[in-house]
Design goal:
Length: 156
């Protein structure tokens, strides 16, 4: 066990990149960027392709989906992560991740890798679960209110 910090925490910028409706799945889109990094058009295109080619089939296979979720596009220090999240059964959050190191030719195998999220992504995931509880887990669930609820911070 190491006693030194693995990485020094520095807040990362959070941005709201709109909403996507892909295959009947309504998604909020977040950008989360490390210093000197940015979300580029190619990353947005990659994220949309990832949802179409990988995520939608997982949503269908899992079933009982609520048709709502969110995407985090995260150009980090070592690579780009795209994490897709969708709600099922009224209270369960599912996730599928695309991860590619900047130096790699191919993405990592995230199906067998037991990663949930990094500390910065966890802040957004927590904000989304709070929004879900407040807008959807009530006597008058409101998908529109959920889709309009955004993480209310500029850095995570």
């Amino acid at each position: 066990m190491t006693s030194r910090a693995i990485e020094i925490y520095t807040p990362r910028r959070v941005s709201h990149l709109g909403q996507w409706d892909i295959g009947g799945l309504a998604l909020k889109v977040y950008g989360l960027v490390a210093d000197t990094k940015a979300v580029h058009a190619a990353m947005l295109a990659q994220a949309q392709a990832f949802v179409r080619s990988d995520v939608l089939q997982r949503v269908a296979a899992e079933g009982q989906e609520d048709g709502l979720g969110f995407i985090i596009i995260h150009p980090g220090t070592l690579g780009v992560s795209i994490s897709a999240h969708w709600w099922i059964q009224g209270s369960v959050l599912c996730q599928h991740i695309y991860r590619k190191l900047y130096s790699a030719a191919e993405p990592m195998d995230t199906a067998t890798r037991p990663v949930i999220a990094c500390v910065w992504e966890l802040a957004l995931i927590n904000a989304e679960q709070v929004a879900w509880r407040k807008t959807m887990m009530t006597s008058e669930a409101s998908p529109a209110a959920y889709m309009n609820a955004r993480a209310d911070f500029d850095a995570a």
